[in-house]
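Re-running the complex after MR caught last week's input typo. The corrected sequence lines follow. Everything else is unchanged.
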Amino acid sequence: MMAPSTVHFVILAALLFGIGAAGVLLRRSGIAILLGIELMLNAGNLALVAFARQHGSLDGQVFVFFVMAVAAAEVAVGLALLVAIFRKQQAIDVDRLAIMRW
Amino acid sequence: MVMAVFVVAAVLAVVSALAAVSHRDPVVNVLSLVVTFFCVAVCFALLGAHFLAAAQVLIYAGAILVLFLFVIMLLGAPQTANDEARRPVQRTAGLALAAIVVVGGALLALTMQAVPPAAPVGSNAHAIGTAMLTTHAFSFELVSVLLLAAMVGALVLVRRKQ
Amino acid sequence: MAAELIVVAGKLLVLATLLLTAVPVMVWVERRGAAFIQDRLGPNRVGPWGIIQPIADSVKLLFKEDVTPAGANRWLYFLAPMISVFVAMLTFIVVPFGDGKGVTILGVPLGSLMVASELEVGVLYLLAISSLGVYGIVLAGWSSSNKYSLLGGLRSSAQLISYELAMGLAVLGVILATGSLRLDEVVAAQSGKPWNVVPQFLGFLVFVVAMFAETNRLPFDLAEAETELVAGYHVEYSSMKFAAFMMSEYINMVTASALVVTLFLGGWTLPGVHLEGWLGLAVSLAVFLAKVSVFMWLFVWVRWSLPRFRYDQLMRLGWKGLLPIATVNLVLVAVGVALGWKWI
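Corrected-run output:
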């Protein structure tokens, strides 16, 4: 048995990113969309760590840490938005957010 | 041994990720994503990034997804009966885009030549801490400002008007 | 390799035995302690001083009917107590609970008694795993399809996240003073100078208060709150599933006590005592158990002495009280480390 190489990790990252992207594009519930975005960010993190090992540098790992912080910030604001929307419409269906359209 | 762990983690990650984006019940979505993130943490550990593996569980599973769960319960689990994108165009475009990403990523990965990875970098937590506060000090400060802005923004958004 | 595996398995066995015997002993101490504080007798019929009472209790729980409420999400309802116990048991493996310096078993030097001795990010692992404990409570509250359960789960998710911050900041002070994330090095760094509790008294205070909130014990047991929520998240649970929640609560108490002892009170060391070999092992284990017992008694003592906080008071204490104090502590430690003070 060999050890998993960078290629394996990158393929896994691509798969996860694709699944997350499909979730964002195909769902209408705000929560599901945010979850999809989280998954995409995480897939990006995985690729970053894999490449960081490939190049023997730590910059990729530091960057992953920043991505985690940004993801936390994004979730805080995103969920606050969802709560605000829910109070107004009693639902978090993103297709119904059309009051700005004319 | 390492390969076996990786295969199990990868399969589990993909399966639970599929459940996370496709299941109707938002609570199941969040829980499946916990499993996915746990598997990604295992991958981090396999890549030698122990610090990030712990941080991944701590931040994603322990904080971010708990926040999701909290909001879902607060809103009383809005289970939308018909949750898929409405127009067929949206659906095909979404699937096509996701497929392009997966196939493209896989092709890219497969065309890479398997170069043996460089030597692992010494003690993980120490090295990351040093890099974060020296080379990347500016980004570090920027992230803290971003977090503060997000916190204030979230508070303003959910505050009820008196 | 095989010998090392056997040694690790042995450590694990000792640890599991200690943790699992701690549960019935604590149940007995809690019931007798409550009686003592409230000036009554408490359970004294089964065995001398009622010492076999916990066994009678567990037999009773074992034979009770295992009820699943009609509207419950069966799978999650089953999973929630499992998660609680699993997470509670997993956290302890990075805590050093004795000193095996000079002892070799099967040709393997024992070192400090810690199961996951290879793990470099010990404290971070501990915080990460214990932050998963909230899932057990939240899912129990959610899957029972009961208003009181849901309220309990909702409260505890906000409570645990809030107090985790203060707790993490208090731990950060110790890590800063030690310069390592490994708990055995935290213990080693505290010999030859005052224990961390002296220079970091504020951090110690914050940690102890947050520890009560993290283990869901009175005065912060808002997830259970008998008087308002009946029993909160585990209202619907009976039989062994209920026992699993009780077990995880007591194991969490042991872990929290062990953690505060390790981080702030020198772990298994005693000032001026330097023993090696089997005698050192026995003494260090006894010292560690004694220190942990003090905090276990503190848990019981506080529970039967203090009333429960109101929810907004709890949140105010966490965010406006503990968090700033922990930050001040961290800044003080950072200044001390930067100036190279010896006793920090």
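None of the earlier attempt is carried over here. The interface with chain B takes residues 73, 76, 119-121, 124-125, 127-129, 131-132, 134-135, 138-139, 141-142, 150, 153-154, 157-158, 160-161, 164, 181 of chain C (CB under 8 Å). The longest strand of chain C covers residues 99-105.
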